[in-house]
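STRUCTURE:
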């Protein structure tokens, strides 16, 4: 019986640690001293949890084409703020502001999303657009 309880405790601890790793701390992955403003064309959208991702193609200061992966909030939160999978699509021109990754890769966390065609702020971390 004692062995059984020990095994269950170890397995339980292992499963809890996996759950804890599935979500990350903003400050561990992104750098508030590295603000970014990205304007480009949506290549792909992953409407998934724990975070939605938008992949855009943009140009750097030298005109080189780059692909950026931009993390948003969870799907439920985006829906509550008025977004849906139909709000944006591949080929839409957008401007995204946010903060770049600590590792210097083309990864960012969004603080706002504006559709270039209409100038409409579709999402903002302040929630002021809805």
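SEQUENCE:
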């Amino acid at each position: 019986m004692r062995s059984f309880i020990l095994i269950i405790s170890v397995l339980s601890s292992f499963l809890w640690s996996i759950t804890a790793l599935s979500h990350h701390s903003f400050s561990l992955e992104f750098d508030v001293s590295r603000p970014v403003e990205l304007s480009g064309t949506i290549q792909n959208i992953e409407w998934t949890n724990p975070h939605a991702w938008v992949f855009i193609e943009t140009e750097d200061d030298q005109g080189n084409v780059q692909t950026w992966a931009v993390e948003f909030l969870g799907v439920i939160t985006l829906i509550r703020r008025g977004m849906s999978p139909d709000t944006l699509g591949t080929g839409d021109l957008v401007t995204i502001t946010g903060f770049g990754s600590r590792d210097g890769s083309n990864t960012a966390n969004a603080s706002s999303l504006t559709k270039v065609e209409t100038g409409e702020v579709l999402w903002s971390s302040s929630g002021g657009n809805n």
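REMARK: The two ends are 56 Å apart (CA to CA).
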